[in-house]
Amino acid sequence: MSASATRARDPRGLGWAVAWGVYALFCVVVLAMVWYRASPQSDATDFRDFWENAIHFRQTGVVASDLGVHNYLPFFTILMTPWGLLPLQLAAALFVALSLGMFALTVWMAEALLAPRGAPPLVPAGRGDRELKYRRGDGERTRPLSSREGGWSNRDGAGPRPALLIAAALALPYVYACGVLGNVGILLVFLVVAAWFLIERGHPWVGGVALGLATLIKLLPAVLVGVLLLRRSWRAAGGAALTCLVLGVGWPLLALGPGVAWREHVAFYERAIRGHSAATTILVDRPIKANFSNNAVPI
Q1: For residues 106 and 188, is the Cβ–Cβ distance under 8 A?
Q2: pLDDT for residue 270
Q3: Which of 183, 212, 239 is at the close of a domain?
Q4: How far apart are CA 184 and CA 188, in angstroms?
Q5: Average pLDDT per run of 10 along the chain, which is 299 residues long?
Q6: DSSP 231-292
Q7: Number of domains, the chain
Q8: What pLDDT is attached to residue 12?
Q9: 133 strand-pairing partners
Q10: Core vs surface per residue 134-147: b (16+ CB within 10 A) or e
Q11: Are 228 and 215 in contact (CB under 8 A)?
């Protein structure tokens, strides 16, 4: 039997082919809805707000808070500015297509992390500062405490597990909502999982950069920096802090000037941190249906 025939009958490859085929069809449906929702006669979406705010900033140099982008740092407006160079429908479709690709990568990274197979056994030989030493037949090797052996993937070509398919299927309604609205939910999930993946694979600095970017887009991932500190993952925490400093502070200083950058960050603090704090969001008097919307979730 030829190698191609063997691969064609391999149930593992067939499982992945079916999974990716279903996801491709799902992506077509989402992108069709995105194209329709981005038309001039349609309702507003999150991405339309981002796009209009980007055009306003590109034309005036002013970070506006009345165009639907009021709970984001000045960094976010600068980051989204290039999307304002494209027509709305094209920009929305490209942004969501990238988001859908990020979700696929997120599933792959989660599977590689949670279902390792084929990694050779390692025998602990001693614990050093922030590192765990392993001893194998080819001598002693040192790896970060949080890393695992087996390269970028430990699955050895195995097909998708039922648990993976169920988890991904349960996430699809959320992915659909994020895609149709054009929000940053998928991007945040991707950055957080990418940070975890990179740190576990022995790339703490790059993982910290991913976590820093997630923190600059929405503040909630910042709590994970505390987790890194508790784990004594100093390089990952340092990468996140350095990213926030360079991109969150340095970039707005260059783009807006010191005075304007300071005012915008103060306004963000008053508007988003104090005005949309956990206590304010939970205790505010609002309609019952608002308790079940994304507006009920603190920043």
Answers
A1: no
A2: 83
A3: 183
A4: 6
A5: 50 74 94 89 84 91 78 92 94 97 94 66 40 41 43 50 86 94 95 95 94 94 93 94 95 91 88 69 57 49
A6: TT-HHHHHHHHHHIIIIIIIHHHHHH-HHHHHHHHHHHIIIIIITT-HHHHHHS---GGGGG
A7: 2
A8: 58
A9: 126, 142
A10: beeeeeeeeebebb
A11: no
Q: Where are the alpha helices (H) located in the chain, listed in sequence order? A: 3-8, 11-37, 46-60, 74-80, 88-114, 162-181, 185-200, 204-217, 223-230, 234-243, 251-256, 258-268, 278-283
pLDDT at 14: 75
Tokens of 155: 């699955």
State the residue for tokens 């494209």.
86
CA distances from 45 to 50, 89, 257, 261 (A): 9, 12, 30, 27
Cβ neighbors of 286 (< 8 A, separation 6 or more) are 295, 296
pTM of the model: 0.77
Q: Is residue 221 part of a domain?
A: no
What residues are paired with 156 via a beta bridge?
none
| Structural domain for 279, as ranges | 257-299
Domain presence at residue 8: no
Kindly compute the dihedral angle of the four CA atoms of residues 259, 263, 268, 274, in this order, to the nearest 10 degrees. 140
For 69-82, write each residue's pLDDT tens digit: 778 999 999 999 99
Closest CA to 69 of 56, 58, 82: 56
Distance (Å, rounded) from C-alpha 24 to C-alpha 243? 34
Tokens 């350095």 correspond to: 242
Res 38: pLDDT: 87
Pair (176, 297) in one structural domain: no
CB within 8 A of 119, min separation 6: which ones?
Answer: 148, 149, 150, 154
What was the pLDDT predicted at 299?
40
Alpha carbons 24 and 20: distance in angstroms, whole number:
6
In single-letter form, the type of residue at position 185 comes to: G
